[in-house]
Write a structure and sequence with these properties.
This protein is mainly β. It is built from three helices and nine strands. The N terminus is likely disordered.
C-alpha cells in the first residue's frame, strides 16, 4: 500500500525523506504466527525531518489506513502560538534509512506527510545535517546509547 505525498516546504531546517510506517500490533501478531506477514498493515510515505519539532506527527488518514487506535488526546502548539487538542495513537512502527523504532504519534487532519521530530531522530541515533539537508547515523553500525558509569 503506497500513499503519494509531497512535501510542502523545503528550507534549511526542514527537508523530505521517505519513511515506512506499519501497525506494530500487526507486526507482533505476525512474529507470533497469528497473522500472515503479508497482511501487516504498512505503507511508505514522504516524511519531513524537522529537528525543531519534538515528536512524530502523522496524517489522520494514515492512522486510519494502518488501523492505529486513538489512545489519548494531546495539546499541540503551532508556530503561531495557537493551541488545540489532537488525537494521539500508539504502536507506530517507523523505519527510516534502515533503522526502526516504535513511537506514539499525534494526528493532524490536514497533513499529507509525516513530521519527524527530535525524539524520533534521537531514538534512532541520527544526526541532522541542515546544510546538506540530510540525516546520517552517528555510528553506521550501531545505535549509540550514552549511559552513566555505575
Amino acid at each position: 500500500m503506497k500513499l503519494k505525498t509531497k512535501a510542502k516546504e523545503k528550507d534549511m531546517g526542514r527537508f523530505a525523506v521517505d519513511v515506512e510506517l506499519a501497525n506494530n500490533s500487526d507486526i507482533e501478531l505476525a512474529r507470533g504466527g497469528h497473522l500472515d506477514p503479508a497482511k501487516v498493515r504498512r505503507l511508505k510515505i514522504q516524511g519531513v525531518v524537522d529537528s525543531g519539532a519534538a515528536r512524530l506527527v502523522l496524517p489522520e488518514a494514515v492512522a486510519r489506513q494502518l488501523g492505529l487506535r486513538v489512545t489519548s488526546k494531546v495539546k499541540v502548539r503551532y508556530a503561531d502560538h495557537r493551541t488545540v487538542q489532537r488525537p494521539q495513537v500508539e504502536g507506530v512502527y517507523l523505519e527510516l534509512l534502515g533503522r526502526n523504532g516504535v513511537f506514539k504519534a499525534t494526528l493532524e487532519p490536514k497533513r499529507d506527510t509525516a513530521l519527524i521530530g527530535a525524539i524520533v531522530l534521537e531514538d534512532l541515533d541520527y544526526l541532522v545535517d541542515r546544510t546538506n539537508q540530510r540525516i546520517y547515523p552517528r555510528d553506521p553500525k550501531f545505535v549509540v546509547s550514552e549511559i552513566e558509569e555505575a
